């Protein structure tokens, strides 16, 4: 046992990261990606083409919900305690019987090929190197089996969109189980695609170009449907834009062993079937019957929905407004967190939408969240520097969280309480 005052405590991820950056700086090296969230986003904007950045960064309507998410985090204030001897911190979190190194997961983000050619594979490798769970998206750019293989034994969850083609939905769940997913996240807030002016102004929806369809294009049930009516073929004298669309569909078809006309059919079948706006609470019993994995509902904002989830035997909740991409004028996710936590009783509650920094993580945990999902920031890291960029963004958030705990006088992530808030 170490004698108080006689041995230096382990520095922890916060001080290690800080030291590494400053020592690297002595030799003139700068971090791979900007540390400050606004500069990170700005650097990604400069790197990406306009439609890709619009899709990643954009939100619904006048983007008031997106701002509300950031404002909600900005409005919460932390109050430190002094002389608590918090020289090293335990950041770990337990969820559904698994222990993870920090209360941070990587949110499911579709169409990561917009950010980087290695897309989900790069994110999976970065997550695996850090032990941080990666939530595979239904709209991923790489099939879950390949990302799982690239991650070894590292933790992963699977996010499900419940489509009208229930054989496909059920097949996704089965495949996720075979891929070693530790939970199924059912996203409830995207039963319709939100009104997103940045994408509308550019007339740009990636799925119609074959992007973000990897889970579908590799699914035996989805593939068996592709004899159906394809999207109309292009006119006899196609415009350059239509030729680019055909090239994109063709490239994705070659990757997944499908012809151009099958790809047109795939885009059409996906559009017609990826969502079920008529989904209801009673349907959840079928999902419960398909899997023994914990089921986590994503997109909960109302305490009554939290109570209903408890009654329906769900295992966890994610407070989220989908990063402000769905309804303009929705409440900031952090604002409703305490009421959802109270209504959820024993169920663990996670949160996303607006988490940008390590101090945001501390605020969310102090307000009752068990963990947070990091979203857009890691996509920007991916855009700037691939796998290494993702790893660096996550390391920076965890480092700041660790230092914030130390400075607050808290010994473990699980010890954060409302008492640490003003
Ligand atoms: C480009 C992009 C794609 C997304 N795709 C999905 C998805 O496929 N499934 C899902 O449940 N949520 C998806 N989301 C929502 C995220 O999981 C998460 O809720 C959101 O990014 C949180 O907001 P923030 O990134 O601003 O913090 C997506 C978000 C973005 C920005
Ligand atoms: O872009 C999104 O936020 C998203 O999750 C999605 C998923 C399916 C169709 C359209 C959007």
From TrEMBL:
Keyword annotations from UniProtKB, A to Z: Flavoprotein, FMN, Monooxygenase, Oxidoreductase
Task: Write down the required cofactor(s).
Answer: FMN
Active site annotated at which positions? Answer: 322
Q: State where glyoxylate binds.
A: 55, 161, 196, 322, 325
Domain FMN hydroxy acid dehydrogenase: from-to ranges: 29-422
Keyword Flavoprotein on this protein? yes
The EC code for this enzyme is: 1.13.12.4
A Pfam family reported for this protein in Swiss-Prot or TrEMBL: FMN_dh
> CDD domains annotated for this entry?
LMO_FMN
Determine the domain of life of the protein's source: Bacteria
- Keyword set includes Oxidoreductase: yes
Q: Where on this chain does FMN bind?
A: 108-110, 137, 159, 187, 298, 320, 352-356, 375-376
Instruction: Spell out the molecular function terms from Gene Ontology.
Output: FMN binding; lactate 2-monooxygenase activity; oxidoreductase activity, acting on CH-OH group of donors
**Which InterPro entries does the record match to this protein?**
Aldolase_TIM, Alpha-hydoxy_acid_DH_FMN, FMN-dep_DH, FMN_HAD, FMN_hydac_DH_AS, LMO_FMN
Family according to the record: Belongs to the FMN-dependent alpha-hydroxy acid dehydrogenase family.
The protein, known as: Lactate 2-monooxygenase
> What organism does the UniProt record list as the source?
Deinococcus humi
């Amino acid at each position: 046992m170490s004698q108080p005052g006689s041995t230096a405590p382990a520095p922890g991820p916060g001080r290690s990261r800080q030291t590494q950056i400053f020592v690297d700086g002595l030799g003139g090296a700068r971090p791979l990606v900007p540390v400050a969230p606004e500069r990170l986003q700005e650097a990604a904007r400069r790197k990406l083409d306009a439609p890709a950045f619009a899709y990643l960064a954009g939100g619904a309507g006048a983007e008031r919900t997106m701002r509300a998410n950031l404002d909600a985090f900005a409005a919460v204030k932390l109050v430190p305690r002094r002389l608590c001897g918090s020289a090293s911190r335990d950041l770990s979190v337990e969820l559904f019987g698994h222990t993870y190194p920090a209360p941070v997961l990587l949110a499911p983000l579709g169409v990561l090929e917009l950010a980087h050619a290695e897309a989900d594979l790069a994110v999976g490798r970065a997550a695996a190197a850090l032990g941080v769970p990666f939530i595979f998206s239904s709209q991923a750019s790489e099939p879950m089996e390949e990302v799982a293989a690239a991650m070894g034994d590292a933790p992963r969850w699977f996010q499900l969109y419940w489509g009208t083609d229930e054989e496909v939905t059920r097949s996704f769940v089965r495949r996720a189980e075979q891929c070693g997913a530790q939970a199924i996240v059912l996203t409830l807030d995207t039963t319709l695609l939100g009104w997103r002016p940045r994408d509308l102004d550019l007339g740009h929806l990636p799925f119609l170009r074959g992007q973000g369809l990897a889970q579908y294009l590799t699914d035996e049930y989805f593939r068996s449907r592709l004899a159906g009516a394809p999207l109309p073929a292009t006119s006899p004298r196609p415009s350059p834009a239509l030729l680019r669309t055909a090239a994109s569909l063709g490239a994705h078809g070659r990757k997944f062993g499908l012809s151009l006309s099958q790809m047109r059919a795939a885009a059409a079948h996906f559009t017609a079937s990826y969502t079920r706006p008529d989904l209801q609470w009673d349907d959840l019993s079928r999902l419960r019957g398909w899997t023994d994995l914990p089921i986590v509902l994503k997109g909960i904002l109302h305490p009554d929905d939290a109570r209903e989830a408890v009654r329906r035997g769900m295992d966890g909740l994610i407070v989220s407004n989908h990063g402000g991409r769905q309804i303009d004028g929705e409440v900031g996710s952090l604002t409703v967190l305490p009421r959802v936590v109270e209504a959820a009783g024993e169920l663990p509650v996670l949160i996303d939408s607006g988490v940008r920094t390590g101090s945001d993580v501390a605020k969310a945990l102090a307000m009752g969240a068990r963990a947070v999902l990091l979203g857009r920031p890691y996509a920007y890291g991916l855009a700037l520097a691939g796998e290494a960029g993702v790893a660096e963004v996550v390391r920076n958030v965890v480092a700041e969280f660790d230092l914030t705990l130390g400075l607050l006088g808290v010994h473990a992530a699980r010890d954060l309480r409302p008492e640490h808030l003003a």
